[in-house]
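Hello K.,

You asked for the raw outputs rather than the summary table, so here they are, unedited. I folded two proteins back to back in the same session to keep the settings identical. This is the first:
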Amino acid sequence: MPRSVLDVETSSFWFKIVDMLQHNWAVILPQENGAEVVFFGDTSYIFDRMNFAKAEDAAKALRRNGFALFDDDKDAQSFIPKPPAQLKDEDIYHRPIYSSGEFWR
């Protein structure tokens, strides 16, 4: 059973193809002092998070790092299934691959 569940709006899903049949997903969540990007995989388990001063900054950073808005990409929609909008947060899935800077520019 996941430690916690986060329901998000599915029209705000960002995606990046990272390998054959593997995608990284992200949503931008408004916060009191900026925005948080939550990263998750095809099974909706959260693996990383990053904070930004503004939602616009988060969107620019996602684009710069190869992410695109899923609902704007009709080609991707024809062959990539959107993961469930109920994101699951469990420590064993946490991998700071973006927030560590390893795969983020």
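The second followed immediately with the same parameters:
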Amino acid sequence: MTALWVVTVIALVVAVAAWLAARRATRRLAQLSEMYWELKYQHSELKNALSRGAAHQAPAADPTGSPAPAQPARPTDSFVPLQSLRR
């Protein structure tokens, strides 16, 4: 009879340990997912900034010395992270 109680207690301890490990893994997964989407958002922002920077480089002045008129920037598509849609 004592052996059954020992097995029951050991099973309970293992179950609690597994439950705690699962909770830690869930929190870590949420953190990694948030970091992934933030990194993806920052990557697209930098990519857009670089494309805007390459498009807005100073054009060569005309022979009279007057600067060329600035052209308005075209709007570009940008990445929207899923985290902002959940809120």
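Helices lie at 2-55, 82-86.

Happy to rerun anything if the numbers look odd on your end.

Regards,
P.
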